[in-house]
Amino acid sequence: MEQKWLTWAKEIQGIAQTGLTYAKDVYDIERYQALRELSVDILANYTYESKERIGLSFAGEGGYSTPKVDIRGVIFQDNRILLVHEKLDGKWALPGGWADIGLSPSEVVVKEIAEESGYQAEAVRLLAVLDKKFHQHPPEPYHVYKMFILCRITGGSAEAGVETSGVGFFAEDALPELSEERNTAEQLHTLFQYLHNPEKAVILD
């Protein structure tokens, strides 16, 4: 479970962002701006990021505040799971990334698999929709839903991409060091259950 200070900062930022979207009264606008500044102060106090950077990324959005969506592709081959080596932190993750405007979840996962692993794939079925706050991910400023989609390879070959430096298949008992911002060992072990039980129901937490 995520830390309370982070939950509070996100909630305050969400209230401020939505309030600034709809507020008309000048005094209400000032109050929502003060709330937004408070959320930035909380994050700056508990992290190593500067207030300027937090303000641009975390508190720089407009419109009604909604969670972000992270989509990950799950591919099994010979009882092993496909992972890519992330350049950003030098660790391994399921291929995937933020959902793109104009693309469906299936289109996003196919695009991300191709870009990060070199494989052409097709989406088969949804396996899980998880809220990051319920899992042991490192703290981050966004409220994120994670979608895990089972896919099958239809072509291509292993090839690193712009954001990745390696591609590999790993057995459940021989997982490499994982990029926990993107996926945890517990999540991968849960996904392996679908390899052994293809009829397992979709997980929704």
Automatic annotation (TrEMBL):
**Which cofactor is essential here?**
Mg(2+)
Phosphoprotein in keyword set: no
Q: Which PROSITE patterns match?
A: NUDIX
Going by the entry's taxonomy, the superkingdom of the source organism is recorded as Bacteria
Query: Which parts of the sequence belong to the Nudix hydrolase domain?
Result: 66-195
Q: Report keywords, A-Z.
A: Hydrolase
Under PANTHER family, the record lists: ADP-RIBOSE PYROPHOSPHATASE YJHB-RELATED, GDP-MANNOSE MANNOSYL HYDROLASE
This protein is called what?
A: NUDIX domain-containing protein
Source species, please? Paenibacillus phytohabitans
